[in-house]
Amino acid sequence: MLRKKEKKAITSTIALLIGWPVGLDQFLEGQNSEGVKIIIGWLFVIISFIGAIAFNEPSVLIFSFLAGFVGIIGVFSKLVSKLKAFEEGED
After folding, report:
1. Separation CA 65–CA 49 (nearest Å)
2. Could you tell me how far CA 63 lies from the centroid of its own chain?
3. Hey, what long-range contacts does 72-79 have (CB within 8 A, 24 or more apart)?
4. Would you say the C-alpha torsion 30, 31, 32, 36 has a positive or negative sign?
5. Which residues touch 10 (CB under 8 Å, ≥6 apart)?
């Protein structure tokens, strides 16, 4: 059977994989302010990307791609930390 730490790592990993754009994993861990910041950040990236395309602004488009790339890197680093927590669970 799985230990409590392993169960928490699994549920957090699933929440991260399914709900990363809305910060579902942060809400699950009880960090509501971080979840709200993630939602605002991804909305900013999406709105700036749409605005850059609509108004044909290449500098804003580059900025939105960079911001999205930073967000994706954050998601993958969080995923790796959750997988490490699962792996380090006691037998």
Report:
1. 8
2. 19
3. 75/16, 75/20, 78/16, 78/25, 79/13, 79/16, 79/17
4. negative
5. 2, 86
Please, is 75 exposed, middle or buried when counting C-beta atoms within 10 Å of its C-beta (0-12, 13-18, 19+)?
middle
Q: What is the pLDDT of residues 15-52, one digit of tens each?
A: 777 877 778 878 888 888 988 888 898 898 899 989 88
pTM summary value: 0.71
Residue 16: what residue type?
Answer: L
Tokens of 37: 């910041």
How many helical (H) and strand (E) elements, i.e. helices and strands, does the chain have? 4, 0
Length of the chain: 91
Asked whether 15 and 75 are in contact (CB, 8 A), the reply is: no
